Fold this sequence. Notes:
By secondary structure, this protein is of the alpha/beta class. Helix content is about 40%, strand content about 20%. It folds into 2 domains: about 5-210 and about 405-425, Aldehyde Dehydrogenase, Chain A, domain 1, CATH 3.40.605.10; about 215-395, Aldehyde Dehydrogenase, Chain A, domain 2, CATH 3.40.309.10. Strand 8 (about 215-220), helix 9 and strand 9 form a beta-alpha-beta unit. The longest helix has 27 residues, at about 55-80. The termini are far apart. The model has no long low-confidence stretch (mean pLDDT about 95). The site of nicotinamide-adenine-dinucleotide has 28 residues, from helix 7 and helix 8.
Amino acid sequence: xxxxxxxxxxxxxFKSGATKSVEFRIHQLKTLKKLLKEHEDEFNQAVxxxxxxxxxxxxxxxxxILHNEISYVLKKLKKWTKPQKVSGTLVNFPSKNYxxxxxxxxxxxxxxxxxxxxxxxxxxxxxxxxxxxxxxxPSEITSHTSKAIKEILGKWFKEEFIAVVEGGxxxxxxxxxQDFDYIFFTGSTRVGQIVMEAxxxxxxxxxxxxxxxxxxxxxxxxxxxxAARRIAWGKFVNAGQTCVAxxxxxVQSGIRDQFLEYFKESIRDFYGVNPKLSPDxxxxxxxxxxxxxxxxxxxGKIFCGGxxxxxxxxxxxxxxxxxxxxxSVMEEEIFGPILPVLTYEELPEAVNIIxxxxxxxxxxxxxxxxxxxxxxxxxxxxxxxxxxxxxxHLGNHHLPFGGVGSSGMxxxxxxxxxxxxxHTKSIMKKPFWLDIPFRYAPxxxxxxxxxxVLK
Length: 455
Ligand code: NAD
């Protein structure tokens, strides 16, 4: 079935009103939760085949996040779907005012490969909660996971409600040519531009969850040992293939050497002296990403790591110092287990480096200095971030997650997902018993009264 036929079928189903009742949505979310449990091994095996992701990371960063989100949404959904009262205003006295969240209709979700289950199904939770039908396109790069998602979801959901479409660029282009009611895209900034251009033709609203270079600052007041451990975890989990991973470090010059020693120690503690043998360290997803990452290794001095094996798609957790000028490693999003480290003397210098680049998806600061915290939050624009940790903000469903500028537009997670996939309809209701005549012609003598109210 091509994109056009699929959308027509979903639209007919949506128009039947089947997806709108809150009971239906709750039932479907429970179904999703159930299938995640029943097929946990299949999801684990598929992602393992794609890039050797360990089981613990699968649960902590994919399946567990999904379970947690669904549980939260199930708890809140009845409240969110009720009309929300808002205040009236004097101009329209007397009136009752409220908003109603209505589903957009048929939405398209396009997912990337790096957290191939979570990033496909987390937006799906929001789309179901809001009462939409969904066409979901997982990434062709993680082909085992894409196949598993199609097979498993196909067993549990009717295609007119949730359809998984596998395929590459051609499939995406076919889908993007259709008149969906909403498009939710996660992926690169480059493809984000293509998606937005296609959406503009039908005036389809979009959420774009994109990438970029997320900086991480460590100043001299930080607890260096803890900072090193947390950053090493956030950089090398998923082998660095994380949109919010610290892309590069800005370390205050006086503490660089001490910090890097702790950092090296953390890598050894996590993955042993030879991370290639560790069952806890994943691989790079394919040859082209391997080659791209491998080329960065020549753009600085290797402080630790640096070993690679193309046959195994293995790149050792690597720290680069003394970065050469004019290379790509400080221009492109790294998206792999290589961490360039720059130094700065005073914080404004670090702010200038960050602000000379596109607005990042995330920013991290390790510091005990409150002024440093205020300066970073005030002077740098970024999607979201954490003080004294990395990645952690993403795990709190009370914090909307999304980028700004070239790192994206719109946000999701928790209530924000429900809002993202709903149109907020505003309603004012008036009684008949009072009809103040100021707005009606003839206008003579009425302006002064209107001016008294509208000021
Ligand atoms: P990508 O942009 O290459 O691909 C994403 C999706 O777009 C895939 O489903 C792919 O099939 C499709 N696609 C690729 N080329 C296309 C084209 N020419 N036309 C239409 N569709 C096309 O991204 P990726 O390599 O899968 O993922 C990595 C990128 O995603 C990184 O930049 C990363 O930072 C970003 N990312 C962002 C988030 C976030 O939440 N903000 C999360 C994960 C990844």
